[in-house]
Design goal:
Blueprint lengths: L6 E4 L3 H13 L5 E4 L3 H10 L4 E3 L2 H7 L2 E4 L6 H8 L8 E4 L6 H6 L6 E6 L9 E7 L5 H12 L2 E5 L5 H9 L1 H18 L4 H22 L3 H8 L5 H11 L2 H19 L3
Parallel strand pairs: 1-2, 1-4, 2-3, 4-5, 5-6, 7-8
Antiparallel strand pairs: 6-7
């Protein structure tokens, strides 16, 4: 169980809301504050979460929180870090979910000794099925890392990696849901092309991906072994797999992950 402390979110977007929901499921009296610059979004959050403190000023929220979660776009990093720098002391833990921004850059824009954790969650966190990787900055402790893992475990699974691997995490699981959505759409389109009604094709495609993913997770077997169990000699599946191989399916997926990884590095100016 997470030991809930005063947690401030800088940014009140979908990912911040997903994490906040996880915290509130764990403890509906959790101390949470959200800083959100958009007045319409502030009103939405106030209506949905009457026990959560909603403010407009990032520095106000950061000063209030013991844990400060930076749930903003990477392009906003410099501006927001300048705003909160006067109130973020080494006694606070800063957790960043900004893609591509290294902990060293965050540390350099805050007071010396500031404790920073980086995290890369993904959008399935919105339904409690996220995959998050976390890593420590120079001053963050093992206890800080454990707290971050506990927070993100409330919205899915959470693993620890070295920071040098965070760009790869971004390319694989951070951007990964979009690849899967595209695959589901393609499966559905193929069903329609071959005569299935659109709603039936979409249902079958989504459930097929969900079921296959659950088999990997719940059986613990390697995907290649599970694939073999579906692939009969001279059957339909091997014919389809041959078509995928002819189209360099696996190579294209690997290229996609690498492209996202490179973009993550570009965002960080590397």
């Amino acid at each position: 169980m997470v030991t809930i402390r005063k947690i401030a979110f800088i940014g009140g977007g979908n990912m911040a809301e997903a994490i906040m929901r996880g915290l509130l499921r764990e403890d509906d009296s959790a101390g949470i504050c959200v800083a959100e610059i958009n007045p319409k979004r502030r009103d939405e959050l106030t209506a949905l979460y009457p026990n959560v403190r909603i403010v407009a000023n990032a520095a106000e929220a950061a000063e209030w929180g013991d844990v400060v979660i930076l749930a903003i776009k990477p392009q906003q990093a410099a501006t927001v870090l300048d705003l909160i720098e006067p109130v973020v002391t080494p006694g606070k833990l800063v957790i960043s979910i900004m893609a591509g921004i290294p902990s060293s850059k965050i540390e350099a824009n805050l007071v010396p000794g500031c404790r920073v954790i980086r995290a890369m969650p993904n959008t399935p966190a919105l339904i409690g099925a996220g995959a998050t990787a976390v890593c420590t900055g120079r001053k963050a402790s093992a206890e800080d890392l454990d707290l971050a893992r506990q927070i993100f475990a409330l919205v899915g699974i959470a693993v620890s990696v070295e920071e040098k691997l965070m760009d790869a995490v971004t390319g694989l699981s951070g951007s990964g849901p979009a690849y899967v959505f595209t695959f589901i759409e393609a499966l559905s389109d193929a069903g329609v092309k071959n005569g299935l009604p659109r709603d039936v094709a979409a249902q079958l495609a989504a459930q097929t991906v969900l079921g296959a993913a659950r088999m990997v997770v719940e059986t613990g077997e390697h995907p290649s072994l599970l694939k073999e169990k579906v692939t009969s000699p001279g059957g339909t599946t091997i014919a389809a797999l041959h078509a995928l191989e002819s189209g360099a399916f696996r190579g294209v997926v690997m290229d996609a992950v690498e492209a996202a990884c490179l973009k993550s590095k570009e965002l960080a100016g590397r």
